[in-house]
């Protein structure tokens, strides 16, 4: 695996005890303020009542405290639902490897090959967005990150566009199987999927569940 990937089991969607304590303390201050204001109004000197301007200031303070409590509660609620995404926030702007299509714009693309896939003979296949094969190269015995230069079998540059990669390998039983290969692609967004899982979104719009990412590196 390339790069360090957070352990998913450590992600949480609950509010931390410290955050909950802060909310409780702020709520307590609000209740205390309300009681003090009520006592002040009940015990004011009838011959020297609170000035209307002072009363307005205190009401504004009361409203501000109330709004602060509510805002804090809403923020804590939002953080509780987004803490899983927060674990991947620093992925944005970096490159992650996943079995998705990668945008080729002239610079080499890095394909990641599992060593088990090249045992006994294998061929690296590149296909364009229409699914047509644009290049094939034998890579028996090779593994790890490999640079794809974006040229066809005659060495001619291929046009810019989205390409997918796979390995065609000998199964050893008289047959062949084709396995999709991960490629490093810039991460542009981290979001929640429809089922609540975390999705990683790449340049060009492709997305995969976070657990499908096998490597991470600084953008090139």
What does this structure look like?
With 220 residues, this protein is of the alpha+beta class. The chain has 2 domains: 8-87; 95-184, Sandwich (Immunoglobulin-like), CATH 2.60.40. The protein is built from 2 helices and 12 strands, in the order ααββββββββββββ. The strands form 3 sheets. A 5-stranded antiparallel sheet has the order 11-10-9-1-12. The two termini are 18 Å apart.
Shape annotation: rod-shaped
- Helix-strand topology string: HHEEEEEEEEEEEE
Give the low-confidence spans.
Answer: 1-20
Give a quick account of the main beta sheet: strands, pairing sense, barrel closure.
Answer: 5 strands, antiparallel
Q: What's the CATH class of the largest domain, please?
A: Mainly Beta
Cα distance spanning the termini: 18 Å
Number of strands: 12
What's the CATH topology label of the largest domain?
A: Immunoglobulin-like
Radius of gyration: 29 Å
Helical run tally: 2
- The CATH architecture of the largest domain is Sandwich
Determine the strand fraction and express it as a percent band: 25-35%
Structural class: alpha+beta
Mean pLDDT across the residues is 77
